[in-house]
Amino acid sequence: MSTTTEGAVSGTAGQEEEEGVTLESLRRKMAEFTRERAWEQFHSPRNLLLALVGEVGELSEIFQWKGEVPRGLPDWEEEEKQHLGEELSDVLLYLVRLSDICGVDLGKAALRKLELNALKYPVQLCKGSSRKHTRYSSNAHSRSNEDPSNGTSEGLPNTGLHR
């Protein structure tokens, strides 16, 4: 990989498109990008987390005031989709960098979390349901702060990813 005179990352993009981008390749590129600019001094876990939160805010602004948006964004202009891709990328890159600085293998951690969620939300009990995970345990009534009328906590559907 090399950098152009403008400082943009270049080199292996075509090869990675054929093979697919991995978290590891992003981690390496972010580390090199940071090293080339002598930014390691600024990349503490706290600073990276705050930058990540800022980027999530920028991502949120794209959807603010749009109401519900259908999958695939059929009514969006190409320019809007490109902007969305840029903001999603900012979030991903900061997350990858934060996990690297903290010594967390993000891929392994994500797979482990999926395994834990599979145990927490067994298919035979949860399929098609938006109920909170505590509704599936024997102590549900003593621990639950759900709205019993809709089976959700604070009116949000249960995706298994935010609990």
Automatic annotation (TrEMBL):
Domain NTP pyrophosphohydrolase MazG-like: 44-110
Electron transport listed as a keyword: no
Lineage: Eukaryota, Viridiplantae, Streptophyta, Embryophyta, Tracheophyta
Biased composition (Polar residues): 136-156
GO CC, one annotated term: cytosol
Single GO term (MF): magnesium ion binding
Alphabetical list of CDD domains matching this protein: NTP-PPase_RS21-C6_like (cd11537)
Domain of life: Eukaryota
Protein name per Swiss-Prot or TrEMBL: dCTP pyrophosphatase 1
EC class of the enzyme, as a word: hydrolase
Record-linked InterPro entries: DCTPP, MazG-like_dom
Protein species of origin: Musa acuminata subsp. malaccensis
Cofactor(s) needed by this chain: Mg(2+)
UniProt entry keywords in alphabetical sequence: Cytoplasm, Hydrolase, Magnesium, Metal-binding
Region (Disordered): 1-21, 132-163
Catalytic activity from the UniProt record: dCTP + H2O = dCMP + diphosphate + H(+)
Binding partners and assembly: Homotetramer.
Cellular compartment(s): Cytoplasm, Cytosol
